[in-house]
Structures
1.
Amino acid sequence: MNRIDKMFSILKRRNEAALIPFVTTGDPDLPSTEAICLEMASKGADLIELGLPFSDPLADGPTIQAASQRALRNNITPMDLFEMVARIRRRTDIPLVLMGYFNPVYQYGLERFARDAADAGLDGTIIPDLPLEEAGPWIKAAKATGLANILLVAPNTPEDRLGKIARATSGFLYYVSVTGITGARTTLPDNLAQGLQAAKRHCKKPVAVGFGISRPDQVEMLSRVADGIIVGSAIVRIIEENTVPEGSAPVRALDARTKVGDFVKELKSATLRN
Amino acid sequence: MKGSLSKPDSKGHFGIFGGRYVPETLMPALQELERAYKAARRDVTFKRELGGILKDYVGRPTPLYEAKRLGEALGGIRVFLKREDLTHTGAHKINNTIGQIILARRMGKTRIIAETGAGQHGVATATAASLMGLECEVYMGRKDTVRQAMNVFRMELTGARVIPVDSGTKTLKDAINEAIRDWVTNVANTHYIIGSVVGPHPYPVMVRDFQSVIGREARAQIKRVTGRLPDVIVACVGGGSNAMGIFYPFSRDKGVRLIGVEAAGEGIDTEHHSATLTVGNPGVLHGTMSYLLQDKWGQIKGAHSVAPGLDYPGVGPEHSAFKESGRAEYVAVDDEAALKGFRLLSETEGIIPALESAHAIAYLESLAPNLERGSIVLVNLSGRGDKDVETVAEIFKGRTA
């Protein structure tokens, strides 16, 4: 059993939802990302999403856009991400999933990308601009190396389409909480729980919810319905706020690691259902 | 508009190009748009309304004008200009925005968004929205709002709100990102009017069809005047909507050479150009697979041209397919040559072209020596140069000082 499936089955027995934090790789620099990942793993994160920076992140709000820009100033490449994953992998068995736009994957070469990702110790990918209709070649390449390809559904996805996507996804199904872009929101849609329940009816695999979730009370509420809770922008913002820019090049996050760790710990405790 | 949807496959692929590389949230919207567009194309009421507005409001058909002094200056070829510069708002962009605005209203959308680079598409969208009484917001890179201040004012006068974009390179590609983000968020009541033959399916097909009025008219006009089809058609290519509009109705006429002229900016061996098809390679941007300017890791590069409307690091997927199949040729003309073309047409014919269209004119100087005397060349004069006069004056002034 791969690391993602194993994690979800253990949590199911423990009656917990998975806490899935996101960080942009190379923001503010690679050593910081690595340290933050290890810290999050030790503070209760169940799976980590590693953003591969892209110049034109059209599904992302201002917080993650800015993080991508900072990472790109460090010239982060897929190879840097793979090497970092390999280093993290020597220290922990936490499932690691890459989240990135399709063009960098395509330029790297699908087969080569899948092989290098799997060899480094990644467990899956989330490619937000690769919907089911275009995902065939990538799903094939990923499957050949044992990588999961996690597909997304949105609140406006029609039921028949939801069923198709639920069958084609692997690892888990990513339920986008809002029709919108990434970014912390004070309120989540009223009908979110119903949407999630519909997704769960159609999907035999775990369903994780993301976009706009930033507070422990939201995590607690959603943990009653979802199998996993994804928190991105709120974590990226802690990193941003606790990094001291030196000239134009950001320097290593000093307090960010501890603060992110504390935040992850707090969020994780909100995923326990009893 | 016959047979237009038969060209790409059912998912909008032209060979490997095209498709729909978008967040899941937009998939239902694109499917809805495709259905609505297919239905509208068959609907007599839609066609009648579109035709009526194109005639009475836009000023179609636009003239086909033989530029005799220009032809002589080029060594005795016959040059025909398709005068899109004479349309209402001064460029071909309005053909597409009128089509899409009627469609948006049919779909019950109450809010229109658009991106713009030079501001021509923004102006054409704001104009169309004003005509239909729909709310309109236009995303424009902060840098472009400064260098095209007059078009910002034109949009505001016609009731649109211009939203400056500060992300990324602060130019057209980032304005498109921002428009897509808006659409993802407000998809229920909003229609996004893309200004070129780019973006996810069905946009490349739909925009091509709305712009094909240029080529359909030109085909009939040139046959009427000369008794035959042209030998060569030349048009500038940024995203490629004016070029596709004039090429497409001739695409099955094997004897007609189609030449798209890209912007070589400061030179294709520099980092400052927009020659996507000439030196780029395939990749995915803004929802479609096409040629792109990118680095080896797939990060998108900034584009440059003296003509702001050509300043885009991507290109329509059907142009990529035309390049691969050899149906069209793509060349690049640098800023310097484009300025010469700008001057050449102004001096020989008293027509001041848009800097974008000046690239097509400029290429005639390289093309003409290889053509026989009396060859017929059709050029899409996609826009007029009023918007560029200040920029060009500044450049020329800098040289004489």
2.
Amino acid sequence: MDDDPQRVESSSDHPIAAYNAGAVGWLYRGISLVGIVMAVGGVLVEVSLHGEMRSGLWPISQLFGALMQGEPSAWTTLGIWILLAGPGLALVAMFISGIRRRSWPAVILAALVLVIIILAIPVMTWIEGGV
Amino acid sequence: MSTLLLIGIALTGFFAAGLGTMVGMGGGTFVVPILVVALGIDIRAAIAAGAICVVLTSLKGSSTYLQEGMVNMKLAMVLEVTTITAAVAGAMVVIFAPVNALKIIFGLVLAMTAVAMFASPKRRRSVKSGPDPFGLEASYDRPTRPGQKNYVPQKVRSGVGLNSLAGLTAGMMGIGGGAVQVPIMNQLMRVPMRAAVATSTFMVGMTAVVSALIYTGAGLVDVAVTVPAMAGIMVGSKMGSKMGTRVPATYLKTLLVGVLVVLALMMMADGFGWWSMR
């Protein structure tokens, strides 16, 4: 499969063109739909039930419990997190696709960008504790 | 937050994305300043909402471009390394800089965007073949006639360096940064306009995620601002792409340049303390 030129799904026929653009496109389509439906749906249910809405996002440590209790604002938070996870998941898909096609420059580039995004999480936690 | 304000936020997203899409820009450039100067929303909450809206519009917009094979994913990854790092720095500025300074910076960037839109340099022709040390050559199916369009991005090192400006702007302002990225790719790197727009749409989502994570950590995300803006932008961008072909682009561009100038002046006046909605 790796050597079949008909299966190259990127916009280029260059050897580095290892990223599976079509699959990433479908992933983006699904994530954006699920994310927006959960975020907007959560707000609508929350406003209709309580007449007001929680302004902040649920902390990740409390999110699961709030979801289990059926808290609509937790669905909104989860919807926003699903949207934010989209580009990271795309990078993981591109990383795996690069490995399967043994295109090491593509793997390194996807990994580098993914690492920078992952590094933003400790920065986020540091700010969460400090600001 | 009152229901009227929530509707106002959703309408801001709707009109900003609708008009922005008609002239090939995202809605973020207009959404954040209108939320601040017209609705009196805190600038940091508006910037955080803007960044999350950029992620949503990037996911939605680039899914089509990806499936059509228009996105040069290799080029995107090469450029993202500096863009995303600069976005982290930009997001830190939002958290630690005084609010008034943010408004002044925002106003200046809006003014520069208006000048760039007004000047709108001619599209540069792409380079079909030549040295390609980074393996970034790409091609896509021409949408208007049969055959493929091949191109080799030029001046990659300069492009990588300059794209950090797009990242910094995106991180500081909660916008996509496409207004900076597309001219760099088309004018400097000689990437065809369609591929530059598609690649930029794909890139802005990744850039915005980093700043959105940092804003989330700082507790800047206000659901009451973010979700109505997201809903408005989703509907507005769909309307804008349908209406785009029916409205003369020249008039629309002139109108939007005017809107940007007014928003820039209001933001700066607010930042200097000469005028405020509140």
